[in-house]
């Protein structure tokens, strides 16, 4: 699926009054099938708002989202939610659905109103749990799994409708490093093997380097920039948007290249000989 945003602008309204801040201004980009876009920007910059506008959960004040050269508004909601999977930020659930039941809910566009899920719906749910590596947890309650497992289940819930685009809002936040990697590798695999395009909000520069073909950086009054990851993610641009100096670090080991950025403010005046890389465990 080709997804484009043309001249997207968005204002929140309160009591029919337009609030002063413009959380998305002149958003323009094109995402081809299988490509990954990362959205980066400071807290409150409007990243979640932008994801909601892109998917039609909020209406652009001006501009539009275009899907395969047709305005998004020309598709029925049912058709749209078969093609777009939205993974919100994971919050602990206070109700006791099993992961299998949670994932079956993602089949809603295929289940007619008042009908019970079919055998096919259950199989699709188990297959989606398998794809994200947690089929063994199918019968566990949402209350009994970890934040990372719940996040994977929310991704599985979108996969059961065979989406062509996945929209993920900070899917790796609150997770330990190992779980973050599972999520990032799952997203990359879905894009490479199934040609699913992804738009992902993240606060981690190294995650954008690992995943993204393109980056959209946004910062309220600081404007917005969209382009290839390596062109957008420079030290000077990070300073402009985040107001701090970040040092770009590129590390090569055999055929692996690691790119990341660390805040200069966290540097310490220490002798390098005091640093230890490994230790007998
Ligand atoms: N329904 C609403 N009505 C008015 N203002 C809102 C509403 N929802 C969010 N906002 C405001 O819009 C701004 C952008 O919020 P948003 O959640 O999009 O930012 P974000 O970049 O995703 O932030 P974070 O990185 O902290 O998750 C915030 O200042 C927020 O207070």
Automatic annotation (TrEMBL):
Pfam family, one: ABC_tran
Annotated ABC transporter domain residues: 5-245
Keywords associated with the record: ATP-binding, Nucleotide-binding, Transport
GO MF terms, alphabetically ordered: ATP binding; ATP hydrolysis activity
InterPro entries: AAA+_ATPase, ABC_transporter-like_ATP-bd, ABC_transporter-like_CS, Metal_Ion_Import_ABC, P-loop_NTPase
CDD domains: ABC_Iron-Siderophores_B12_Hemin
Superkingdom classification of source: Bacteria
UniProt-recorded name of the protein: ABC transporter
Organism annotation: Candidatus Kurthia intestinigallinarum
